[in-house]
Specification:
Layout (H helix, E strand, L loop, with lengths): L1 H16 E2 L5 E2 L2 E13 L2 E7 L25 E2 L13 E4 L2 E4 L10 E9 L6 E12 L2 E12 L18 E10 L1
């Protein structure tokens, strides 16, 4: 019977950390996955959050991203976020970083992965590196998830701009992680 008591204790401990009632959550961080598509529409960068590269359905597992325009297949002009500029459609850029609009994240519970699923801009291979950074966006400085891009061949920053994403071209990347 001792093994039963130990098992019961482990189950109750696990139930406190893992919540399956409304998706998968680990210690208050909820699992999220979505596809971010950034396109150059006649010289203007636009982005949207979708289920996948089909870009027709709004993401089901992006409820921790604030301000996503739904339903899917909706793009917004991508702002260069900063001290006086807010997010649009759940995100914004700053040089080589795509910043996601979320509540403040917990510093010691970071879990994120990112992968480029589609890019037709030129011969350079951009590599996404998910990070969490404290950045002032429209007067609010909190810890948020960010996807930093580097040139996979040289390691240099790969800036998200209309040079690297020419007119009519795009990049799409998947974010997977746990967010507060």
């Amino acid at each position: 019977m001792l093994w039963l008591r130990k098992t019961y204790r482990n189950v109750t401990r696990t139930l406190r950390l893992v919540d399956f009632r409304a998706g998968v959550a680990l210690d208050g961080q909820k699992a999220q996955t979505f596809f971010v598509h950034v396109k150059n529409n006649a010289g203007t960068l636009q982005h949207g959050l979708f289920v996948d590269y089909n870009v027709t359905l709004a993401p089901a597992y992006a409820d921790r991203i604030i301000g996503v325009i739904a339903p899917g297949n909706t793009y917004a002009n991508t702002p260069t976020v900063g001290a006086g500029t807010d997010f649009l459609n759940g995100g914004g850029i700053t040089a080589n970083i795509f910043v996601l609009n979320t509540l403040g994240q917990t510093g010691n519970l970071h879990f994120a992965m990112a992968a480029v699923e589609y890019y037709d801009g030129n011969v350079v291979r951009p590599r996404p590196i998910p990070t969490f950074g404290s950045r002032d966006v429209n007067g609010v400085t909190i810890l948020r998830p960010e996807i930093r891009f580097i040139n996979d061949m040289t390691g240099a920053d790969w800036t998200i701009n209309t040079t690297n994403i020419p007119s009519g071209k795009s990049i799409g990347f998947r974010f997977m992680g746990a967010l507060a």
